[in-house]
């Protein structure tokens, strides 16, 4: 597989260049400041973005399959329609991130901060946006918005849903304790 050198990618970003639609398969951008970067529709599958700062970045429609974003800072980051299949976002900071319509199959959000994040697909009926083994264990989902989704095989144990808004969310196939949803606001969903 073709791999772009880290130095080239970082230099292009420093020059204000957009990396939209680029093939950045397996790129190593760990610990880099990528604030405001445009990776929309880029192929970042297998990328190492561990502990990277992606604050205000555009990752809409990006392919992040198998990417490592553990410990990354994704404040207000746009991930609308992104493919996060088998991606690791363990202990990542996704405060205020937008993940509507994203594919979260086998995605690891253990210990992640998803306060005020938006997940789901409020304007459409997604086809299985969540898959087996996706986990939000011990994640902070305070005031997060989940809209019109079915959480099949999702692990929510120990997650904090205080003030989270669950609109038309079907939890019948999710793994959780009633206490995990304490403080959540639900509307027309099944739990």
Question: What does this protein structure show overall?
Answer:
By secondary structure, the protein is low in regular secondary structure. A five-stranded parallel beta sheet has the order 1-2-3-4-5, with no helix packed on it. The longest helix is centred in the first third of the chain and has 9 residues. It starts with 5 loop residues before the first helix and ends with a strand. About 3% of the residues have low confidence.
Map the helices and strands.
Elements: H1 6-14, E1 98-100, E2 118-120, E3 145-150, E4 165-170, E5 185-187
Parallel strand pairs: 1-2, 2-3, 3-4, 4-5
Summarize the structure.
This protein is largely without helices or strands and 191 residues long. It has one helix spanning 6-14; strands at 98-100, 118-120, 145-150, 165-170, 185-187.
């Amino acid at each position: 597989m073709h791999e772009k050198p880290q130095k080239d990618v970082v230099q292009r970003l420093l020059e204000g260049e957009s990396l939209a639609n680029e093939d950045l398969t397996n790129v190593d951008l760990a610990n880099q400041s990528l604030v405001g970067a445009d990776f929309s529709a880029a192929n970042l599958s297998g990328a190492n973005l561990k502990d990277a700062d992606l604050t205000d970045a555009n990752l809409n429609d990006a392919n992040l399959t198998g990417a490592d974003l553990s410990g990354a800072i994704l404040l207000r980051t746009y991930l609308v329609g992104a493919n996060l299949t088998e991606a690791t976002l363990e202990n990542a900071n996704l405060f205020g991130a937008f993940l509507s319509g994203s594919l979260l199959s086998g995605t690891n959000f253990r210990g992640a901060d998803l306060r005020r994040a938006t997940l789901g697909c409020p304007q459409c009926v997604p086809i299985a946006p969540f898959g087996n083994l996706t986990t939000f264990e011990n994640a902070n989902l305070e005031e997060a918005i989940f809209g019109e989704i079915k959480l099949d095989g999702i692990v929510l144990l120990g997650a904090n849903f205080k003030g989270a808004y669950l609109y038309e969310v079907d939890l019948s196939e999710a793994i959780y304790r009633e206490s995990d949803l304490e403080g959540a606001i639900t509307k027309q969903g099944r739990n």
